[in-house]
């Protein structure tokens, strides 16, 4: 997935409502405030807390 800057401006962490950082190598959107990484599958961000990976693990 190529990061669409306009789309990234609209997406926020569902837990903290803070902006996300796109990690192209891992294909994840990172919420440093919540300590979560949301996966991007087939070009679609999965913004479910249950699907997120804890950062640092």
UniProtKB/TrEMBL annotation:
This is UPF0434 protein COO09_01985. It comes from Rhizorhabdus dicambivorans. Signal peptide: none annotated. Pfam families: Trm112p. Belongs to the UPF0434 family. One of its GO terms (cellular component) is cytosol. It comes from the Bacteria.
């Amino acid at each position: 997935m190529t990061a669409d800057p306009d789309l990234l401006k609209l997406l926020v962490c569902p837990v903290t409502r803070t902006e996300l950082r796109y990690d192209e190598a891992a294909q994840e959107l990172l919420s440093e405030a919540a300590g979560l990484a949301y996966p991007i599958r087939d070009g679609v961000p999965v913004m479910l807390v249950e699907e997120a990976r804890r950062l640092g693990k």
